[in-house]
């Protein structure tokens, strides 16, 4: 029995090491949220077992949870580099699948068609507005900046306010609102499913996304010209790495000790 108990310990340590290695590998990934491994003990006994005689049979990985704490904010100066100061998420729609993803990585840009994207096939979602910036609908749509205004003046720049209003400037000196950034929040963000590239999908555990405007409730305000970096603390991860390594070594030593005891018993019988 001790062999399997320690074997479970070895597997758990490997899982912990894998999570820590993933955190360290993403220390420079914008919008990344670190994970941590949660363990639980295992006990077994029947209804007839004396509760004073029940012994544990090892541990198991109960969950790998994500820490959605705010990461450091880096000033970049880019007009479409956005950081959220609260608990909200940017909503982006995948052109390939049509699914809505959620991210904390606010490194956006404009593609050749005028859509505001994350550099890939995902388009930033905004509330539609009129030319004066008044929100005209509660269903988020793709953010698109016209390459020219109604008078034919060419697009020259874009500004995003703390309230999420996206305003495009044109060569004739006019400014026109093209939408207001829609932020999403979740009842249980730790239930979001990681899909890579600092993106998440909603699940039955996280609940459906609730949308709101920056500067209201728990969504937080926007900072234009800034990016939220990874919230991984490299010093903390290195300490965790040492702890996981010691845990692995201790379980390996327990297997070695059990082997020696078994060998001793075999020798006594011979």
Automatic annotation (TrEMBL):
The keyword ATP-binding does not apply. The keyword Transit peptide does not apply. Residues 223-268 form the Flagellar basal-body/hook protein C-terminal domain. Residues 3-33 form the Flagellar basal body rod protein N-terminal domain. Its main location: other. It comes from the Bacteria. InterPro entries: Flag_bb_rod_N (IPR001444), Flagellar_FlgE/F/G (IPR020013), Flg_bb/hook_C_dom (IPR010930), FlgE/F/G-like (IPR037925), LlgE_F_G-like_D1 (IPR053967). It is found in: Bacterial flagellum basal body. It holds the Pfam family LlgE_F_G_D1. Residues 83-168 form the Flagellar hook protein FlgE/F/G-like D1 domain. Keywords: Bacterial flagellum, Cell projection, Cilium, Flagellum. PANTHER family: FLAGELLAR HOOK PROTEIN FLGE, FLAGELLAR PROTEIN. Belongs to the flagella basal body rod proteins family. NCBIfam families: FlgEFG_subfam. A flexible structure which links the flagellar filament to the drive apparatus in the basal body. This is Flagellar hook protein FlgE. It comes from Pelagerythrobacter marinus. The lineage of its organism: Bacteria, Pseudomonadati, Pseudomonadota, Alphaproteobacteria, Sphingomonadales.
């Amino acid at each position: 029995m001790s062999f399997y108990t320690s074997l479970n310990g070895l597997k758990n340590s490997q899982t912990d090491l894998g999570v820590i290695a993933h955190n360290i590998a993403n220390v420079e990934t914008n919008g990344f949220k670190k994970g941590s491994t949660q363990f639980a003990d295992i006990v077994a006994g029947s209804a007839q077992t004396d509760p004073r005689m029940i012994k544990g049979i090892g541990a198991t990985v109960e969950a790998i949870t994500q820490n959605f704490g705010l990461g450091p904010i880096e000033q970049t100066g880019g007009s479409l580099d956005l950081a959220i100061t609260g608990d909200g998420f940017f909503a982006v729609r995948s052109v390939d699948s049509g699914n809505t993803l959620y991210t904390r990585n606010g490194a956006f840009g404009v593609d050749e068609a005028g859509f505001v994207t994350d550099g890939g096939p995902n388009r930033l979602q905004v509330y539609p507005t009129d030319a004066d910036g008044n929100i005209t609908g509660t269903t988020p749509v793709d953010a698109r900046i016209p390459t020219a205004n109604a008078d034919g003046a060419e697009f020259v720049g874009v500004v995003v306010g703390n309230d999420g209003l996206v305003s495009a400037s044109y060569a004739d000196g006019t400014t026109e609102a093209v939408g207001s950034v829609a932020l999403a929040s979740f009842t249980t963000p730790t239930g979001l499913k990681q899909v890579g590239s600092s993106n998440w999908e909603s699940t039955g555990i996280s609940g459906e996304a609730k949308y709101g405007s920056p500067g209201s409730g728990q969504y937080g305000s926007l900072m234009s010209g800034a990016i939220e970096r990874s919230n991984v603390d490299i010093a903390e991860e290195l300490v965790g790495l040492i702890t996981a390594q010691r845990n692995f070594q201790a379980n390996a030593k327990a297997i070695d000790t059990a082997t020696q005891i078994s060998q001793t018993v075999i020798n006594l019988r011979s």
